Automatic annotation (TrEMBL):
UniProt cross-references to SUPFAM superfamilies, sorted A to Z: Dihydrofolate reductase-like
InterPro entries xref list: DHFR-like_dom_sf, RibDG_C, Riboflavin_Biosynth_HTPR
Bacterial bifunctional deaminase-reductase C-terminal domain ranges (all copies): 2-182
UniProt-recorded name of the protein: Dihydrofolate reductase family protein
Pfam families associated with the record: RibD_C
Amino acid sequence: MRTLISSAFVSLDGVVEAPGGEPGYRNSGWTFKEMDFVPEAYGLKGQEQEEAGAMLLGRASYEAFSAVWPDMEDFARYRTLPKYVVSTTLTEDDLVDNWGEITILRSLDEVAALKETEGGPIIMHGSASLNRALSDAGLIDRYHLLVFPLLLGAGKRLFSETDKDTQKLKLVEHEAYSNGIQKNVFDVVR
C-alpha cells in the first residue's frame, strides 16, 4: 500500500488559499510577500520531490501547476513522476503534453485503488477541496505542513468543517525556523 501525503503551506488559522500569488484572493502571495526568505524552511519541498513516487492533484491545482511547473528547474524531478488528477470535468484534451504521464481519476474510490498499487509515496500539493474530501474519507496517511505565523482570516481551509469522529495524528518531525515558519510532519494514527 502506498502512502498518501498531503503537503501544504498553511497559515496559523488554517488558510491555504493563494500562497504563490494566484489572482482573486486579497492576501494572494502571502508566503513570499509577508515572510523573510529562509532557505532551510523550504528543505521539506526538495525532500518531497526526491522521495515521491507519484503526484496527486485536484483539477484547480493541476491547472495552476501544469502551466508553470513543467518548465521550472526547481520542480524538475516532478516531470518524471506519474501524475494523477482527480476531476469529474477534465478530459484528455485538457491535459498538457510537456509534463510526463498524467492520468485522470474520477472518484475517491479511484484514489483508494491507486493507494493499493505498488510504488513510492504519492504527494499531493495544494488541492484544498481534494484534501478536505480525502481527509474526511480517511485516505490521507501523512501531513507535511509548513505553518506560517500569519492570520489570514477568510480563505480556503485545509480541513473541512464536517462533523466527524476525532482523527488522531502523531507528530513525527518538527522544526521551527528564524522567520517563524514551523515544519510539522504528522502521521495519521489508524
